[in-house]
Amino acid sequence: QLQENQDEIENMMNAIFKGVFVHRYRDAIAEIRAICIEEIGIWMKMYSDAFLNDSYLKYVGWTMHDKQGEVRLKCLTALQGLYYNKELNSKLELFTSRFKDRIVSMTLDKEYDVAVQAIKLLTLVLQSSEEVLTAEDCENVYHLVYSAHRPVAVAAGEFLYKKLFSRRDAEDDGLLKRRGRQSPNANLVKTLVFFFLESELHEHAAYLVDSMWDCATDLLKDWECMNSLLLEEPLNGEEPLTDRQESALIEIMLCTIRQAAECHPPVGRGTGKRVGSK
């Protein structure tokens, strides 16, 4: 009897899906399309056994190309709810490989809100599997830390931090207590300097610092470590910083001090609603 009841309910759900959703997810009214995508995201989350498969996911993938920003936004937030749950990752692999390029391209969406949520979704994808995103995919997000729009830049800063600065090795307590040049932050500070120099936007250190301020405050405020990298002799086997790298570190350090003292984003960075031309 339980099995019969379940079959009956699933038949009803199927009839509703085919009779309502399949027609209305491409309704002429954007608001109705948005409701459809929001709801299918909820179904996939609540009843993943029945709904979280490519027969249903494809509708979200197709709708990511919708002309209206509010509908594209619902696609991204629905997917975030799924990628956030690591138990569902295996069911999302085919979808990820098929629609990953579209999600990456949405980080440059003309609607800022959509671009922000696309970056946040890629951050969740990154956490679910290191191998999914190529170096090129990641670089497309990295350069957005220099965006003039702060929410986009902050989202990109968090992606950059998770990819390049999250410590994967569990350091022992002794190492964590070390300070200055011997602290775990020393290598992270160097990574920041290398990233800044490679990006070749040398007048924009303030933008880079502001982008990572929320997620990497402890690192950016470790002035003791930065000072020792500039003033102390390298440890055995350690490569000394070049003059160019030292200059970049001084520039970054000044920007972190200014950010800490003034508590506001650099000049030219705001929170306007639309992106300019690509």
From TrEMBL:
InterPro entries: ARM-type_fold (IPR016024), Cohesin_Scc3/SA (IPR039662), HEAT_SCC3-SA (IPR056396), SCD (IPR020839). Residues 21-106 form the SCD domain. PROSITE patterns: SCD. It comes from the Eukaryota. GO terms for cellular component: chromatin; cohesin complex; nucleus. GO terms for biological process: sister chromatid cohesion. GO terms for molecular function: chromatin binding. Pfam families: HEAT_SCC3-SA, SCD. Belongs to the SCC3 family. This is STAG2 protein. It comes from Tachuris rubrigastra. The lineage of its organism: Eukaryota, Metazoa, Chordata, Craniata, Vertebrata.
